[in-house]
Amino acid sequence: MKVGVLALQGGFRPHVEALSALGADNLEVRLPRDLAQADALVLPGGESTTVSRLLQTSELVDPLRERLATGMPVLGTCAGLILLASEVLDGRPDQVPLGAIDLTVRRNAHGRQNESFEAALEITGLSGGPFPGVFIRVPGIERLGQGVEVLACLSSGEPVAARQGRVTVCAFHPELAGDLRFHQHFLSSL
């Protein structure tokens, strides 16, 4: 199984390194022909409005929507969560969500970059104790649709990781945690 990592902008390199460390066959996705080679996909963090525009200029929006509609497994982290949501609050008017998971997300719900934080997370399906969640310009999940399973919450009860079908999203950056368990969990679900 070949795992693609969307490599248009943002923190894609640490995801590639994490997948490689786990022995996964992976490739960087920049064009539709790259996406066609991938059996699963990681949408990394970055600037969601920029990535949204780059998806359009790279002619990836329609092929990506097709692949998602046919059940391609995907992991979206931070900006990837925003892109995969069915509704985005505080986005640009031309930012079109991919609608792969039935939830509403608010961009930068916890403030700017200087308000970033870390939190120990209990994640459903992850053994070995709390996972070190790294939160940078954190999106907030404001509504969960029917059939969306919450995988982790902050101590306040706010959901920060969720899954619906073959789509997994998180508001944090597992690729920056120095802990490969989240990526391993995603790979084991393929």
Secondary-structure topology with pairs:
Blueprint: E1 2-6, H1 12-21, E2 25-29, H2 32-37, E3 40-43, H3 48-57, H4 61-69, E4 74-77, H5 79-84, E5 85-89, E6 101-106, E7 117-121, E8 131-135, E9 140-144, E10 149-153, E11 159-164, E12 167-170, H6 181-188
Parallel strand pairs: 1-2, 1-3, 3-4, 4-12, 5-6
Antiparallel strand pairs: 6-9, 7-8, 10-11, 11-12
What strand line-up does the widest sheet have?
A: 2-1-3-4-12-11-10
The CATH topology is Rossmann fold
* Rg over CA atoms: 15 Å
Largest sheet descriptor: 7 strands, mixed
Helix content range of the residues, please? Answer: 25-40%
Question: How many H/I helices?
Answer: 6
Task: Report the count of strand segments.
Answer: 12
First and last CA, distance: 8 Å
CATH hierarchy class name: Alpha Beta
Task: Give, in order, the helices and strands.
Answer: EHEHEHHEHEEEEEEEEH
What is the mean predicted local confidence, pLDDT? 95
Helix-strand makeup class: alpha/beta
Question: Could you say how many structural domains there are in total?
Answer: 1
Write structural notes for this entry:
This protein is an alpha/beta fold and 190 residues long. It has one domain (2-188): Class I glutamine amidotransferase (GATase) domain (Rossmann fold, 3-Layer(aba) Sandwich). It has helices at 12-21, 32-37, 48-57, 61-69, 79-84, 181-188; strands at residues 2-6, 25-29, 40-43, 74-77, 85-89, 101-106, 117-121, 131-135, 140-144, 149-153, 159-164, 167-170. The strands form three sheets. A seven-stranded mixed β-sheet has the order 2-1-3-4-12-11-10. A three-stranded mixed β-sheet has the order 5-6-9. Strands 7-8 form a two-stranded antiparallel ribbon. The longest helix is centred in the first third of the chain and has 10 residues, at 12-21. The chain is globular, with a radius of gyration of 15 Å. It starts with a strand and ends with a helix. The model has no long low-confidence stretch (mean pLDDT 95).
